[in-house]
Design a protein that fits this description.
Elements (H helix, E strand, L loop, with lengths): L3 H7 L29 H7 L8 E2 L9 E8 L3 H17 L3 E9 L7 H15 L4 E5 L3 E3 L13 E2 L3 E2 L15 E5 H6 L13 H11 L13 E4 L14 H6 L1 H4 L11 E7 L4 E6 L5
The chain binds uridine-diphosphate-N-acetylgalactosamine.
């Protein structure tokens, strides 16, 4: 674990603020999953400024944004390798002060993506004063680094154009894949629901929470908010949740009591790996 002391020593408040438009952005990127995956050591070598725990601060300027990237995870090791390989350089070119958290669900019970995201939020703010939280599926890679991961004045949906959906928004109220919210926005909606076990609905639930809290949703245009998706079969333990429609009907009533203020979990491990922070967690499944 990086000690608090080291963390504050490494921050240099004397540096000028980073420019609004980072100068080294490349625009459209060539992303391929056909190429050999690199080893974690090779990725580390290619990203020498990334510190233990997967954090980074621009060396020449003070970032405008302190961002926690939160990844819900279980048994997607290969996807994680590509994610780290492609996303670390992008996030550095965006001149973010960031740290990558992988929230790894322990055991073989029903997967709960949204609850993992709540755990990521709650654990990351114990480490640092993050203002911006990016909730990021592990199998999506940004194809244009101009979609900067900086939280605006309303929640932002980033997963606009996805190769899996032929680069079209599947429906207007879609809030899946990659989203970002400030600490204030996320606490205002009481975080995500903890009650979606298995696949589906939890992203639509968050959309409803945001609307019920009278916020709007912001999107970059589809030419920059583009993602290449890695192929996968439906994972074991993440079968369709048959209760999702019932839950979705009750969001406005339930959200006050279901979320950050009702979150229960047990951290099994909290480890600083060279390229990310791994938090393995027991979610106390519904069974
Ligand atoms: C869609 C949404 C996703 C979420 C999900 C419904 C897109 C691009 N994504 O994803 O945001 O709303 O539907 O729940 O529309 N994961 C694991 N291990 C598992 C299962 C899931 O690591 O065993 C993680 C991983 O980060 C993955 C994410 O959860 O990317 C979403 O699960 P999915 O990829 O199975 O679902 P998908 O692609 O239909």
């Amino acid at each position: 674990k990086i000690s608090e002391e080291n963390h504050s020593l490494s921050r240099n408040d004397e540096l000028p603020q980073c420019p609004l438009q980072p100068p080294n952005l490349q625009g459209p990127l060539d992303i391929s999953f056909a190429i050999q995956p690199q080893t974690m050591d090779e990725i580390k070598e290619n990203n020498p400024l990334v510190k233990e725990g997967g954090s980074y601060q621009p060396p020449h300027c003070t970032s405008r944004w302190k961002v926690a990237i939160i990844i819900p995870f279980r048994k997607r090791e290969l996807h994680l390798v590509y994610f780290l390989r492609y996303m670390h350089p992008i996030l550095q070119r965006q001149e973010l002060d960031y740290r990558i958290y992988v929230i790894n669900q322990n055991g073989t019970g029903k997967f709960n993506r949204a609850k993992l995201l709540n755990v990521g939020f709650t654990e990351s703010i114990k480490d640092d004063d993050f203002q911006c939280f990016v909730f990021h599926d592990v199998d999506l890679i940004l194809e244009n680094d101009k979609a900067i991961y900086s939280c605006p004045e309303n929640p932002r949906h980033l997963g606009v154009a996805n190769s899996k959906y032929s680069y079209h928004l599947p429906y207007n109220a879609y809030f899946g894949g990659v989203t970002e919210m400030t600490k204030e926005q996320f606490t205002k909606v009481n975080g995500h629901s903890n009650n979606y076990w298995g696949w589906g609905g939890e992203d639509d639930d968050m959309y409803k929470r945001i609307k019920a809290s009278r916020m709007t949703i912001i999107r970059y245009s589809s030419d920059i908010s583009r993602y290449r998706s890695m192929f996968h079969k439906r994972d074991e333990g993440n079968e369709d949740n048959p209760q999702r429609m019932d839950l979705l009907r009750k969001v406005n009533l339930a959200m006050e009591k279901d979320g950050l203020n009702s979150l229960t979990y047990k951290v099994i491990a909290n480890e600083n790996y060279p390229l990310y922070t791994n938090i393995t967690v027991d979610l106390f499944g519904p069974e």
